[in-house]
Amino acid sequence: MAKQKIKKAVLAYSGGLDTSVILKWLQDEYQCEVVTFTADIGQEDDFSHVRGKAEKFGIKEIYIDDLKEEFVKDFVFPMFRANTVYEGKYLLGTSIARPLIAKRQIEIAQATGADAVSHGATGKGNDQVRFELGYYGMMPGIKIIAPWREWDLNSRTKLLEYANKNGIDVPASKLNEPPYSMDANLLHISYEGKSLEDPFVSYDPAMLIRTIPAEQAPDKAEEVEIEFANGDPVAINGEKLSPAQLLTKLNQLGGKHGVGVIDIVENRYVGMKSRGVYETPGGTILLEAHRAIESITLDREVAHLKDELMPRYAKLIYCGYWWSPERKMLQAAIDESQRYVNGTVVLKLYKGSVHAIKRKSKDSMYSMQHVTFEEDEVYNQRDAEGFIKLNALRLRLGSGRG
User: Fold this and answer.
1) What is the CATH number of the domain that holds 169?
2) Which among 45, 74, 169, 181 is annotated as catalytic?
3) Which of 14, 51, 81, 98 is catalytic?
4) Residues in the chain with pLDDT values less than 50
5) Is 18 among the residues known to form the active site?
């Protein structure tokens, strides 16, 4: 198939081996101008090194954008308002970062007059779908270059040969790299592939970066207080923090106590199963805290409806439909439910576990007068008899039918 004619392409560029090869490959194969875009979403890379590598190949337009606050405020927090978990365990750390990267990439394409965008996602994974659904949703006529679906550099050996041939620096760590691939942002760190591909081989706890193995965590539990306003966390232990600062602090607290490490096999959107290990210390604390504050502030049927909608919402994010009308519709309903989700939760962190132990709110629906086992004047227990008989009517009418 003939290649598209491209004048300028915006490349989602990490500065690692794959995207460095892609940069040079785009110049060679498409003879186009390349703009590089690197999103700082909390992965703690050396961005001066990333810039230097791009400059080495003559890149004139280099974007390195600090998106940490936007990432947490406009993507992570809205997702956590829904208590979002994919397939019972995964807190969607990689999935939720992709729509932001796609959004900014398209903005840069529009600002620089680029007619194409490019990414380093493989043809086997979810990220190609997440990026490209985002691109098309924001700029329907954009051209997309996905090198892993085009080139013949389909092995690590070929990538290294191409890099050496074209003067692309390969750090010593890449020549003898960890036996897995990693993706990091402020919400999580993921580990996949290579030594983790066999689901019957346990992961090596030494690979963890943010989280101490639970067995090595302190022997003394620690309590942490989180304050919420309209469903979002706003303070830790009485200290007001920005969204990114708050998640960073929760990561430190959770990591110290071994909280938030999972080892799962998930169902990818493209159809195959994938084994991954995820570190999400701050997110795990946040999920427990948010459910705790909702337990005293949400109406019962609203809470149950949210729980019914959540798996659909989670699947939309996992599969790349953040910018879809159905996700926006669900988000509006979720956000409406958070009007009275205000208050404070105290949690206990201990050796890999996190539990809510206290919760209070000015908007609480919890009534000690009604639930007390002592004598009260607000609840007539005889009312329950009619309630039960009405609810039993269909059971009584249907009895004896076999």
Assistant:
1) 3.40.50.620
2) 181
3) 98
4) none
5) yes
